[in-house]
Design brief:
single chain, 198 residues, mainly alpha
Length: 198
Amino acid sequence: MAGQKLRHMAQDNRTRPRKPSDTFRADACPLCAFLKEFQSECVQSLNHRLARTLCNFHTWLVAKLADAGAAADIFLRMLELSLEADSSRQSCDLCKWVADQEHRKIEEIAQKLDEPDSLHWLCEQEPLCLPHARKLLDRVPNEFRDEIILSVQRLAAELKGELTTLSRNAKARLPIRPGLLGRAAEYLVSKRGLGVKP
C-alpha cells in the first residue's frame, strides 16, 4: 500500500545506517532519480483507499502503471468528486507523498554533507538540478553553499555550450547529440512530474 510504503521508507531513512553511495545515485540529479523511483513504487503498489485525488500527471501515471482494479476505483472516486462544487481545490495525494519524501531526502543530504566523499561526489560528479540545488542551499551550512553554487554554475556553462552547438547543428541539419534537450530540461525544472506543488 502506498501510504504504508511511504511510512516504511521514511522510517528506514531515519533508522538504517546509510553510506553516501546509498544516498546518491549516479545517473542524473540524485534527488530526481530517487524521487522518480519512489513515485513509481508508490503508483505500482497504490491502495485505492489512500489515494483520493490526483493531478493531471499522476492521473496518467496511474492509468499506465497502477493495478487496473485500484486505478479504476480511484478514477470512480475522482468522477464523484468532480461533480462537487469545490472539487477544483482538491490537492493531489501523490504530489503530497512525493513532496514529503523530497523534504526528508533533502534533510538527509544536508546532514551528510559533512562527509568529504559526499561533498566531492555532489559537487564534482553528479550535480543537482537547479530546483533541488536551490532547496538544498536553504538547509546547508554556509561553508558548503559556495561549492554547491559552483557545481550548478559549471553544469549551466556546460549545457550552454552544448545547447549552442546543438542549435547551430540543428539549423544546419547536421547530426545532433541525443538526450541533450532532456538533460537541459531536467537541470532547469527537475525530472518530469516532480516539483509540482501539492
